[in-house]
Amino acid sequence: MKFDIDYIAHNNKLTDVNAYFKVITSIVLMIVVLILNNLVLDAVVFIAMSTAILAIARVSIKDYIKFLTIPMAFAVLTCIFLIFFFGNGEVIYNTGIFGIVVTKSSFDLGIKTFGRCFACFTCLGFLTLTTPIADILNCLRNIKVPIVLIDIALLMYNIIFIFLDQISVMRNAQQTRLGYINSKSTYKSLGMLFSNLFFKSLDKSETLQHSLDSRGYSGYLPVYKSKGDFDVKGAKY
What we know:
Elements: H1 5-10, H2 19-36, H3 39-56, H4 61-85, E1 91-94, E2 101-103, H5 104-130, H6 133-142, H7 147-176, H8 183-214
Antiparallel strand pairs: 1-2
Helix pairs in contact: 2-5, 3-5, 4-5, 6-7, 7-8
């Protein structure tokens, strides 16, 4: 089944919970995690947010893992880089390759960075998997986040799906032509896919700009408000 974050956000047990509560909870927890830099706190936040997503919102564990996979892959690579190429002081492991060593400070830095990434991603997952994008943007607009930032967020959100759709279409076209039948053709197909994706992205961005201009875009993108306005202090009315 295709991972559809919009569908999940509209179909879980926490969709109708006050969006302000979810936005503020997620943002506050992320700030606390980043400021305190404590592994125990990171673990507590991870467990609490994962429980809310899986047990309360009833998001499937398969979708949750899909959501975490790509950002966590980047986080792991970043932490490995930090462990082997940053820090100084006591050496705890020598790779024997070009003098690359692991020091106590670099190891601590990598582990703590990984813990913070993990905790923050679960907070972000709690927000995006349980709250429709329209509700999130309405909250941000009502708490006076600059309009330009909200418009950029909305455009990026929509473009991500266009981007993923283009990848899927081109990959399917390559597969029908046996583009991934062996290692050599796989590398060649991936190279062609990414190079074509760049030009497709440029074309789509120009099309988007023309569409906005034709509809009288003046620097403001209206956001759909579902089920009435929000009250900053409490529930929907």
